[in-house]
Amino acid sequence: FRQLLYRRRMKFTAALSFLALLSPKAMAFQPVSNSLNRPQTASTSLFGSADEFCVGILGDLHIDPRVMEDYETGRSQWLNILDEAKTNVGEEQVSVVSLGDLGESKSVRPDETSELFAGTTECHELAADFLGGFGVPYDVVGGNHDLEGIDEFDTDEANLELFLRAHNKDGPQFMRQIAEKTLLVGMTSTIFREAKYTSHEVTIDQEQIDWFENVVETHPADEGWKVFVFTHAPPNGSGLRVLQENHVVNGCCWLNHSNEVQCRKFIELVREHRSIKAWFSGHFHLGQDYQDSITFPTIDPKLGPYPNRGSCVFAQTSVMRSGTSRDGRQQSRLLRGNKDGFEICTVDHQTGGTIRLDATITYRDNDNEVGVYAHSDMEKVEDKYFKVYSPSAGDSLHPPDENYIAYDEELIMEEAVTMDTKAWWKMACGRVIGMLNGNMIEYDKSTLAPLGLIVGADELVGKRVCIIDSGLDEMCAVDDVEIGMEGADCGEAEAREQAVILVDDNDGSIVVVQPNEDGSYWRKIVRNKMIRMKEVRREKAAKRLAAAIKKDDEKDDADVVSSWGPYTTTKGTAKNTGVSGLTAPAAK
Question: pLDDT tens across 371-412, in order?
Fold first, then answer.
């Protein structure tokens, strides 16, 4: 492997001569374009020494005991790879990491029970038996489904204790020194029942975040440390391909997605600590053939602006079983490296476990490296469904992308939104809002990663968007002021307050898009799975009641609707709770 890296470094010489002219910050990581398709191989090529290592990385397993064929096939392919690696680099420098979501999130015995398999004792014991059969030590991080044993365990704490016991873990995080000054570090999602919003958000608790920060602070790059990180979902700012139709609209793309401070903390640590060399994640069930399944810390300035990702390469990991793949791929990741750099490869389970080189990263020193893609994008026509546009703010060498709208005081769009409209702009408060596929979306103001849905296409298409000032008047007056609260609205006025307005030129209607209480705009509308399951049971109970009391001439299926809070009006006194046209007569 060292010889392979050396030969490739010779090919980089011309590129490095040009890149050496750039500033040190811009040069932190410079990928070199390479569209050559390297030949596939069914074996590794490592030459044993203390600094060499090999790691097999498994994406979302979602094990279903009824269909174990793909798992057995995949593991047999891995055994060949790992056995050769143990011979070449030594048994202590070879391991496997599972990225979580170990069990099928549905009943595996539907004729007997409705209990979900994921998160149960049976699930984790089966997963531990499977992962323990690779012939090398394994580490595992928990995903959003791994505490889903909701019928067996009353609390997240009890479910987590089972997870740790089954996989012989001392705590939800792990750290393994895989080679000289080389660490594998992982963190687990520890909240499911207690999730404030969607239970499928991957949430790393504050104790683990503090632990991780201490790890990278005490293993700095200037002392030669290399840290490889593993979590179920990627951090905000990774630049990896995400699913708008699933993870974006539901607010579960990134680690700690709904907590603005924690969500941004991970990329801030990456930017600060250059010992973090790579970060592997799963969660999206997407294949590894797209170039944006691997993102480099920066790109050649000729190709675009500086992404600001420290020294870290981010890599998406696919799935092993066919029934869990969103795009038909069945793939795992292989990480192999030494003191000179590392390679990220694909193990293709549909082609007999062949290995394809995806990217080579060569260290120039402790803080700088050179990366090269080993093949061009292998996207298929139908894969475009999975691609999500993210704005580009540009930098000192590049302007913002063509969809950016700059404005001074107010933004009044002349054309109604269509499904093809692409645009984004900044609010005075710093929030970033844009439109894609007929939806209005909020983006992170630092990384410009998508955060969540503000207005769906069903409500937005056909309307014009306006951003206008909404500063308070001299009297700070609002309707229906509560006694004793007169003038209170003046106290928290922002320096410049704005309103997002939707105008329908066909019927003259106007909709004000109100921000959340924390100032964000994206709608946290998917609640905790436990809450939603209880709501469904209440609706089923209502239907049973309707069937019991219905008259002979009434239809069999009753119209049952639910009523929710918390907000339906701007008034200071709540007098009405009806939803117009749903639980109350439609407004005229």
Answer: 888 877 666 655 554 556 678 888 888 899 999 999 998 999
Nearest of 117, 112, 197, 103 to residue 149 by alpha carbon: 117
User: Which stretch of 26-35, 391-400, 410-419, 532-541 has the lowest confidence by average pLDDT?
Assistant: 26-35
Burial of 152 (0-12, 13-18, 19+ CB in 10 A): middle
Give the DSSP per-residue string, 297-336: S---TTTS-----TTPEEEE---SSGGG-SSS--EEEEEE
Give the dihedral of Cα atoms 104, 105, 108, 114; nearest 10 deg: 170
- Complete DSSP assignment for 177-239: EEETTEEEEE-----STT-SS-TTS----HHHHHHHHHHHHHS-GGGT-EEEEE-SSPPTT--
Neighbours of 385 (CB within 10 A): 11
Each residue of 5-24: pLDDT tens digit? 333 333 333 333 323 323 33
Whether residue 339 contacts residue 180, with contact meaning beta carbons closer than 8 Å, is answered with yes
Q: Residue 200 corresponds to which tokens in the numbers above?
A: 């499928």
What are the backbone dihedrals phi and psi of residue 332, each rounded to the nearest 5 degrees, phi first?
-130, 175
Q: Tell which residue, 425, 416, 418, 421, has the closest CA to residue 443.
A: 425
Strand partners, 370: 30, 362
Cis ω for the linkage preceding 305 (within 30 of 0): no
* Residue 10, SS3 per DSSP: helix
**Radius of gyration over alpha carbons of the chain, in Å?**
26
CA atoms within 13 A on the CB side of 162: 22
Q: Choose between 538 and 346: higher pLDDT.
A: 346
Tell me: the pLDDT tens digits for 213-257? 999 999 999 999 999 999 999 999 898 876 655 557 677 888 999
pLDDT at 370: 81
Cα gap 369→326, rounded to integer Å? 33
Record the pTM. 0.81
